[in-house]
Amino acid sequence: MFKFSIITDWINNLLHEWMPGWLATTIECVAIGVGLLLAYALLALFYIYYERKVCAAFQCRLGPNRVGPFGLLQSFADMFKILIKELISLNHIDKFLFALAPYLVIIASMLAFAVLPWGNGLQIINFNIGIFFLIAVSSIGVLGILLAGWSSNNKFTLIGALRSGAQMVSYELSIGLSVLTMVAFAGTMSVPGIVEAQSNLWFIFSGHIPAIIAFIIYLIAGTAETNRGPFDLPEAESELTAGYHTEYSGIHFGFFYLAEYLNLFIVSGVAALLFFGGWMPLHIPGFDTFNHIMDYIPSVVWFIGKAIALSFIIIWFKWTFPRLRIDQLLSLEWKYLLPINLFNLVLMTLMIVYGLHF
Amino acid sequence: MANLQEKIAAKFPQATFEEADILQVNIPDAQLHDLAKTLRDDEDFAFDYLVTIVGMDWTDSLGCVYYLTSTRHSHHISIKTSTTDRDNPMLHSLADLWRIAVFYEREVYDFFGIIFIGNPDMRRLFLSIDWKGYPLRKDYDMNPELNPVSIENERQSDFTYTYVETPDGKVEKKEVPIFKEDDFVVNIGPQHPATHGVLRFRTALDAETIKKIDVYMGYIHRGVEKLCENLTYPQTLHFMDRLDYFSAHNYHHGLCLCIEKAAGIEAPRRAQVIRVMMDELSRIASHCLFIGTFCMDLGATTMLFYTLRVREQILDIMEKTCGARMTFNYDCIGGVMADLDPDFVKDVKALLAVLPDNIKEYNKVFTGNIIARNRMEGVGVLTREDAISYAVTGPSGRASNWACDVRKTDPYSIYPELDFEEVTRTEGDSMARFKVRIAEMEQSAKILEQLIDNIPEGDYCAKVPKVLKLPVGHWFQLVEGCRGAFGVYIESDGSTQPYRLKIAPPCLPLACVVDHITSGNKIADLITIGGSLDYIVPDMDR
Lengths: 358, 542
Prior knowledge:
Helix content of chain A: 55-70%
Number of strands of chain A: 0
Helix content of chain B: 25-40%
Oligomer: heterodimer
Strand content of chain A: under 5%
Shape of chain A: globular
CATH superfamily of the largest domain in chain B: Cytochrome-c3 Hydrogenase, chain B
CATH architecture of the largest domain in chain B: Orthogonal Bundle
Structural class of chain B: alpha+beta
Strand content of chain B: 15-25%
Largest sheet of chain A: none
CATH class of the largest domain in chain B: Mainly Alpha
Number of strands of chain B: 17
Strand order of the largest sheet of chain B: 1-2-5-4-3
Number of helices of chain A: 15
Distance between the termini of chain B: 33 Å
CATH topology of the largest domain in chain B: Cytochrome-c3 Hydrogenase, chain B
Radius of gyration of chain B: 23 Å
Number of domains of chain B: 2
Number of helices of chain B: 18
Order of helices and strands of chain A: HHHHHHHHHHHHHHH
Largest interface: A-B, 30 and 33 residues
């Protein structure tokens, strides 16, 4: 398979030949930052279009179809509209925290981008606790939501933020435990390590029962983490108008909106990494010809394709299920998911110890 | 009826009787409370359902007409009481006997200025607290300078008043706070996605739990009753489709029946069949929208599009015949405005063919869903006694096992000939209210099936005098709207215009009961309960 590290190493060496080390590193950082922002924006635009089309299909509608061919330019038009909208300044709010909150939310999701396995050798940071880093940075997002709700000085946003706090803290446990289950199975926390471990067979197949349980729990908890339906209580529009971001306008609202879609991508991306081999093509032991053909599909396509397919499931949830109530949401986590998860971790450990996996 | 009269006369010698369309008892204010209590508690009377309180200004006196019904014996009675004091009119409250009387009396106070002694909450119900005058009094000054359109924020009070009679016969005014000192009060509405119109709940919360709700209505009060007093009878019809805009046909039907009863006109058979078919089509369309918006309130947005498909089909049928998709103005005095469209039979049959599959689909997508069941089952339970005491009629009342369908209890038009079941459930929760409506759609379809091949030939409208005058008297008519019993009271002085036209809407009690069934539940349950009660704000505000 084609390794992107060949290109990146070549660029790195080239820069180091022509200029001092500190300058080369600075240029690389800036280039990566720009690339990341670009990928971020394009993915968000794609996701907005994608969700609208999928939702339309569920609702017997056509979805956007006026701006550009098949409505493809619709999300560009919407994003442009949001960019030129006025940022309404409010009285009686904590101005600094109010302005800070959307950036915290978006920074959290951008940092998480850094460790995703985009392709073979295409990874921004590669260090041995990659998954740990990912969980750590994605928890920053809740701070932004809490700040947004608190600083808006509005009762609806405050209730939304409180709900969000309770929800995120609870479901982080489930995410952490199901990730831990898979990390135990992989035997490493490094992201490329986890991908390499799946070069023969994806974890969802080789880990069979415990992996499937972990996957289902991860998907439920991941949906809750992204504040999407049926777990969209923090912004439940029929109860709290728009929850924690009621008072935001213009691009500040846009940041929350973008972060929601990007979090959707990150959750699906991590699910792809942990259960479906990251960028690793579908390999079946013993079918060498098949495996070889699969290798011809570029690794980037594999990763993004898997993430989008998994996002489809989460979008499907949203447009099918009604919303849970806060007490039902919490009892689902603490009474059901958490015990199942702990049991599953034990099951996985036993399976590893006795070598009962493929 | 004579039997009732004898029994009342034996206990209350001061009472005088008047024979209108139903028995009317005239009683002085001093005996009013005793009479009402006897009528409610005595086994032979058992008048447990207060249909409405009609405030009246007879120029020489102010007063009220109470319409009562017994759910057990299904007999009716009205009580009339009055006071000649125009400057400071006071009557005794019946708020301790029927819970809905608190709100009905507030309405009378709002429009006539009659103070009810003993009512715990004597505020205006619809008009702003700064309003000058009482608009339904005959000597009300309509000069716009007295009540200009305000550009300031509406003044609002956190206090209510109650009038208490001391043992020596004096009446004292007391100020009562609505909320406690340290309550966390969230304003839900008037502009809120889940209040289904411009309705406001001032909600006292303890974290997510609701402690108390103060319903604040009147944002779309248009004074329909006052407007009707200056219009001829055919003109008054046009307001009926602007109350509950989903029951436009049913409401027109009700007012037409009341006027026809008074004028002695009988609509031809063809018109009666058409009216009933339109009523039932409206009911299906209305319940479709209910299912859609209710599911949307619960976060299941997709259901709305599924239910709107059927609703659109019905609106297409109505558009062809009535020329409108909302605010139909189709029923007129003596029949209907125009004959049916030639495609009507074909279109209704097409609708009846797809309806069962659609209902099956709604149940599959939503009703059985575990999240939906957790959100609805056991949430907002309304007992049968409370439903009657709060006068919660319609599907919401029937979900509490109160058989209150006017089509069965007081059949009108051709309903006695039709074969359909009155759907009731025993649970009284949000899920029951939801399921009753789904089952009612099936029953309406059953009625349509019986009628669609049997529309008689003939005139669609009876001959009605160009200038319609009603004889002196008063009449009351109940019909079954899509959300409950809709009542019309007409008092005529013999002219071409009603002396008083009172509308008793089903949605007012639905909004009034919200506080009772939400306390102790979560905020999210307020949305579930409000959605399942399915009130329409223009209907309660009028």
